[in-house]
Amino acid sequence: MQQKLFAEAFGTFCLVFAGTGAIVTNDITDGVITHVGIAFVFGLVVMAMIHAVGDISGAHINPAVTIGMWIAGRLPRSSVTPYILSQAAGGLLASSLLRVLFPSHPNLGATIPSGDSWQSFILEIICTVILMVVVLLVSSGSKEQGMLAGLTVGAVICIEAMFAGPISGASMNPVRSFAPAVMSYTWTSQWLYIVAPITGALLGVGVFHLLKSND
Fold first, then answer.
1. pTM above 0.85?
2. What percent of the chain is helix, strand and coil (3-state, nearest 5)?
3. Deepest of 13, 29, 74, 80, by most Cβ within 10 A of its Cβ?
4. DSSP 143
């Protein structure tokens, strides 16, 4: 279990540090990375973490995915809280380091709706439904393994970040939003980035069972 929890902390650290770090770098370099580049960074870092630690912890690196795995019967209930705490620790450490490196940046890549909160709320739910369904379809038990899982999940995140990112930030991950929000005191509509991904993950489990059920 210690290895699994460290894997989740490390994977989430890499996700938040690289993903939100790309946003910060893009901001301070007048858009050198570009929105498309940021989307690719998020997709690639998730793909890399699935290949790196997927066979250890499953590379959930996302509390919503962990909750979805539990509801789907892929993860024991006793692992849910330790997984989420490890993910939170990794994300907060990443945002803390970014604060040290870029002390003047206003939000450290926190997700903020560009329009109405309800619009971003719905987008986040739909994106997380798609992500959760794909994760369940390509994973084995509680683990995401192999070339197919990494490429597929990374591609889904990249695609969703491209089309939903300019509106909602395409978080789909409470820790990815919570960590930079805490370290930058950015609380604008942050509730939706906790509620929407968890709601989307639960709905995604339902969609998965409709797709795979023999009944």
1. yes
2. 75, 0, 25
3. 13
4. B
